[in-house]
Amino acid sequence: MRLNKSRGYTAFLVLNHIILAILAVLCIFPILHVAALSLSSSTAASSGKVVLFPVEFNLKSYTFVMQNNDFLRAFGVSVLRVALGVPINVLMTIIVAYPLSRKKSQFRAKTFFTWFFLITMLFGGGLIPWYMIIRETGLLDSIWALVIPNAIPVFSVILLMNYFRDIPAEFEEAAYMDGAGHWTILWKIFLPISTPTLATVTLFSLITHWNSWFDGLILMNSPTNYPLQSYMQTIIINIDPTRITQRDLDLLKLVNEKTTKSAQILIAMIPIICVYPFLQKYFTTGLVLGGIKG
Amino acid sequence: MQARGKERFKRELPLYIMLFPAVIIMLIYSYGPMIGNVIAFQRFLPGKGLFGSPFVGLDNFAYMLKMPNIWNVLYNTIFIAFMKMVMGIVVPVTVALLLNEVISSAFKRIVQTIIYLPYFLSWVILSGILITILSPSDGIVNQILGSIGIKPIFFLGDARIFPYTIVVTDIWKNFGFGTIVYLSALTSIDPTLYESAVIDGANRWQQTKHITLPGISTTVVLLSVLSMGNILNAGFEQIFNLYSPIVYSTGDIIDTLVYRTGMQNYQFGVATAVGLMKSIVAFIMIALSNQLARKTAGYRVL
Hints:
With 294 residues, chain A is mostly helical. Chain A folds into 2 domains: 7-62, no CATH class; 63-291, MetI-like fold (Orthogonal Bundle), CATH 1.10.3720. Chain A has helices at residues 7-38, 42-46, 60-66, 69-101, 110-122, 127-136, 154-165, 169-177, 182-190, 195-211, 214-219, 228-237, 246-254, 257-291. In chain A, helix 1 (7-38) packs across helix 14 (257-291) and helix 7 runs antiparallel to helix 10 (195-211). Chain B has 14 helices and no strands. Chain B is mainly alpha-helical and 302 residues long. Chain B folds into 2 domains: 2-52, no CATH class; 60-126 and 172-297, MetI-like (MetI-like fold). In chain B, helix 4 (70-100) runs parallel beside helix 8, helix 5 (105-116) packs across helix 8 and helix 10 (204-227) packs across helix 14. Chain B starts with a helix and ends in a 5-residue tail after the last helix. Chain B is 73% helix and 0% strand. Chains A and B meet through helix 1, helix 4, helix 5, helix 6 and helix 10 of A and helix 1, helix 4, helix 5, helix 6 and helix 8 of B.
């Protein structure tokens, strides 16, 4: 088809492969290096012998992290957050996208409500008022502060709304003739044929909830309520000396700080790595095709 | 007429019921903060709440303009955001064009899989990794540089280098996603165009110049125009995790300033005023860029 073999072209092809291979290596190298650090002995890690492969392989830093109650508790908070937040996000996306996907003849207030949701994407309230409202409504320090204020992912709503709108009208007309109401049409007809977009919406919500750390950091008064990423922010990035106990100090003598940090980073990555194949499959097509409508 | 209106309402009622919970939540947690911006005009006392605090007119805005670092922070924000915008187009388009020339689909897939991964990791995780590898004393990057005779570079602690570290690490996280967006634009180009170009004797470079580039130009224009709405978003999550007081002169941005002023120094009124100015400018930029996108590429949100 595009065959055109000159010597210059062959040289280009070789060079192209080399450039792309180097690029890929540069991208993955930092992650592999940290993985290697987490599996190396503390002396090897601190003396700078570790590059891409573990030196003096051992699992000490992982067993150390697994004995750390703060880490485990934070992991639990994150799991709870995902378990509550994702179903709420998906349910809200479905029941908001459906009315907005109706034709104007079926739902007169459609334009009004569409703008009602869209405006929140264009104009944000700002950090301080947002914090004050959550404080005034009494959600501070509760898991619901991480779930309720962002219960409606507007971008996902638009994605699913566009998908619903493209479903041919014959589908629902037949059901409508049989006396089916909106709930039946949504649940029995629309949802079963929307699984790819629902997968995108679910993954989007999963990633957002797992990765969020800033809300946990400022909305939780007590560090024991921090989700994992907020906890990691305080111990890896902003080391707060008041939160290090004598027990931690004693244990740190046995295992190196560098290897334990690396182990925590790796453990926090595991859920993302597990869903990564699905992310690759559903994220791109869903986002590109649904978000940008030409 | 009345009966028909009633019947119509009955038919639409389930739709209102579906919207009801979301509308309540949005009113409180999205529209509430918009109204909460009155704090910008108050000497806000948390004990007295939103409506009990005394109003002080534009005092907070006047204070904001007198803050010694405000113009510097604005400059840093725009400088970093603009560099990210430009690189956020150049790098993914280039990589997508290079990947498009790869014949082996296995190689293509491996490269895509690797470069896309950082996009899904949080800035806490990525910053943890970056702080480890960029450390001037025992980070692997400086070890490698040292082995070829380069003195340790303080990537995160040198104010002259910090903004560039931010841009490069931002590319690391995000260019995989952009590349895949542009790749899908490339694959939608009609293959018969290339066939007829080959018959006309066009070489690869001519094909790229006359078919491939014009083929993705709409997507490029659209995404660049839309990214203009982010001119004041230099990336709070990233900078918050990577900066330190040593690099405030070049790395402090509007969002980090708002955070420190409000959440650490409890100057709620001033912080809200700065945040409100940012929201207004961002809103204007987004509205303008959407308008422009509609004109240039026929883009519509709805």
